[in-house]
What does this fold into?
Amino acid sequence: MNKIIFSSELELGKFLGSTDVIPDAYHAILETTLPFKLHTNRRSGIDVLAVKSCSHDYTTQFLKGELNLVPSENLQVDFIPTKVKSSVANNEADSIPAKDKSLFSINKAVVELFQQLSDDLQEEEKKHINTPLIITGLGLGGYVAILSAMRLHHAIDVQESDGSKNTKRPICITFGCPLVGDKAFKTVIDERPQWKYSFLNVVANKDPVATFFSSDPYKPFGTFLFCTESGGYTAFEDEDLILPVLNAMKLTNPDHLHMYDYRSVLSTFNRKVLYRGVPEVGELNLNLFNAGITMQLREVGVSDDMNDQIEKMEKQIKWSKSNKNSYEPTRKLNEMKISLTYMEWYMKTRKSKGGYYDSYKNDETIYEIMCQNEIVKHQRNLNLYWKKIVEDKDKMPQKEGANLRKRWLYGGTNYRRIIEPLDIVRYYHKEKKVNYIENRPNHYKLLERWADEDKNNT
Amino acid sequence: MEVERESVKLLLDDELIKAACNLSMKAHNHNQDYLTNTKKHNASSSSSTQVLIIAFKGSFEVDDFYHDDHFGETNVDCSLFPSLRRIGEAQLAKVNGSILKIFQDILNNSGFISEVEKAVKEDKKILFTGHSSGGAKASLATLWMLDEYTRKRKIRHPIGCVTFGSPLIGDRTVSHAVRREKWAGHFTHFVMEHDIVPRMMLAPKTSIQEHLSDILQFFQQKVKPNTTQKSHKFPKFFNKKTPVRTVDHDESVDDNQAVTFFEYVLINASTVANHDAFDLMEPTNSLKDKLSADFVKVSPYRPFGTYVFCTRGDDLGASSSRQQLVVENPNAVLQLLFYFLQLSNEDQDLAKFAHESLNANLRYEEELNNNGLQLVKMVDLKHLNDHLLTSDGTAGDTVRTSNKALFELTASAKWCLLAVEEAEKRKLKNMDQIKKSMRKDKSNESESTTKIKIVEDMLDEMHKYKEKARHGTTDYYEAFKLQDEYVDFEANVSRLEQAKIWDVIVEMEVRKDLPDEFEASDEVVKLATEFRRLYEPLDIANYYRHSKGDDNKGLSYMEVRPKRYKFTQRWYEHTNAMQFELLSESNFVAEVEELMKPRKKTVEEARKDFEDIKDKVRMWKSDEKIAYKDVFWGESVLSKLQEKLAEA
It folds into this structure.
């Protein structure tokens, strides 16, 4: 079936424009005289932590291009890994010693600005683990807001892995914040689903700071809301579009250094929904997705031809839609239970024949070989499944006594006890390798370690 | 015996609608909560030819719309409206708290119930109606009567509801329940293209309260020309029939008030419409969800029932060229409620348009007297979607000119309507796939369907396992617990294969990825019930087989009962209009297992519980809706418990 793909970001943009969240956040910044301040919105009752833009001199320095990318270890923080983990680097044939490799690069201004305010901000963050908070920042103040939001997300991750269900995730809204770091930094955020969609960057086309970086190695993350002085605005999430849009805006910007005031673009924001706007021309029935994006680009005054990018996006969406079944995890969970039931039955029936370890090793009869083909299939499925789970969990913060982990850790232990012996048989007898312990798969090691930690804590 | 569950819809005709509209407007001028009138029914050939029209009057105080500062919604009274919920999740619907309160008072304090009762006895059909908030009350009355008479008392009495410019009163759960019960056809909501009132509840009170009181005052004056009001501006000697309602600008609402009110309603309508349209487009970005969870309050109200949009049609002004557009899908109605109210461009006079949108709420009588219900000319949106994207000048010109308002919408509005339809198709596709995994498709048996386990086949095998367990020496429950033989292992795999299918169904239901009617589909509920009765004992057996090692912190099965059994039990209970029960014929074994656990209860308590369970088992055994062979009657566990209690 040929499915219609819609450009949902068109609707996201309209939704964002019709609410008060964005103007409220900007208003909080305008009312901030200190470097940052916590406000409570009178109408909505929501707390807004507003970070002002940094000094004019510093911004000028930035706009002159004097602040460049620096390796992540300059950022001395504990809420994101800043160095490549030795376990990962081990597998790569690399001449550089693993522990000296930085994980990502960020602009120097991020490091310098965040370190000035870091401790004071953390006090405010701590109060908002269980209440909603909007963290917002203007210009380079956005750098501080982003890091602060990441730290709060991390604190919430820790709480949640402890079993807390009362946590509230923050939203980070920046105004005119330039791109932060490289692809690796983007990955840090993207691979954490709870973080990924909580960043909203509002960018006006005439803002020289926001459009200062518009190409590699800088990469955008989060959702971008582009807006123009003529009242247009639209939302984008895909880096393939954000970068060229930023670039197109940069090219039309006058070269002089100034701080952009978002008041005028925001004042007409929600009034736009009162009108239908200009009727569009051209064939709209050819490709809705392409037409939607083209309309979005026109909305923010970008007339560059981006058909290549749009096509690429469309292909990606189609691919991910045909490959991703959102019900797969549920189905998989029961499939794994079935596989484990098979393994248990295998263990049970081989008890009389000297145990399943030996039966597996000595597949002499045809019957035994047939059984084993079936068993090997289940063994492989279980291994794939658990390797993936352990890998995902390993990215989340580890803390002792994590309640939430118990539920699947029990299953993981069960899996490890039944399957690892068979993997060992395979290792020595089928693949004729030596020294299993030194080459023991990482996911078994982690599962065992977590199970031990769990035991020690109860 | 199959129970006829379908409700009977009242067929509307032009005369009936006009009578309803006139009575609705008249009702505003009386002290009673509602007016009645009996009409001859021409649209039907059945024996009953009389219709009792009950028209509710409107209320015009701020508190009659918002009982709090936000949207004023409240959980529905589930004793009056047992169907208004999502069944599986046992999630109650929300309705407007003020209107609900008024309706409850009408039920308790007036002769309303006896009036309805009398009409049913006299075989008069019933048509509830009302204008503005009177329409909201009529909707509630209809929902109440459908539950009370059609479902509870199984009286198949013809019921209808017609509203004129009514505000929204129910959340998406009401909308879901109405479609699930196939009640949508009972409701016909007339909405003038630009009428502000049907959009009003999409805005929170905080945003519009500044002028709300004045605006409601304005409506009250207009619909009650007879009452003396301080600010009343029309001389008393005006003949009643003087068309005061056609005055465009009224001094009681100034430009600023009208514009401010209009803007806030429209902006909030946009928030809701964009919010829902985004979700229909299968987005991956969850920023909107995060915002609407904690930071932005989006109106809970959604339309339900059938909407008739009265659009301006051809601009030439001849009254006959007005066009009526019928829309059944609530998602599409919501989009049109927003997009029809948008101004075409910034050159348009905002103040004039805002006043017009207020006055539109007073034009229903005029509209219907001039145009009536154009049954012949009405166009169903469903048939228009294919034409939506054809550009000007190509074929389909007659379709375009006869549905001007719709085709003049912007492209992005049309995409939203298409997204509504696509979402509907997705849901149907999901249901088809589920049904395929349930029954063997006779037509393509030759295809290699052997790989996929079919629910029905597994049920058959499970029946065999149940009957043959240990050749009569024990029952399948005990046999399964022992897991000694290959057939026990097979049964365990079958249990998990079923879980694989039903867990996904439950998740689809929770994520609202299935058509509304799924939960009440006879075919599904029948299979689900058989599955639950046959397989739940195995899950219980499995649970207590493992928990011997006491890894589960002493939780009972009932505390961790899988959703696939909770949902399917509630489906069954709802289909049979039963109360929701915790203990059922499929899970009482778990309760018996709990009683066998040491030091949980005193012997006396345990004996009493044991007797209670035995009573219930007797009751279930005599229930003709429960097939004897489907249920595990707990023989082995019950006798074990009996022995144990005897020893104690």
About this structure: Chain A touches chain B through 64 residues (CB under 8 Å). The CA atoms of residues 175 and 202 of chain A lie 5 Å apart. Residues 87-96 of chain A have pLDDT under 50 and may be disordered.
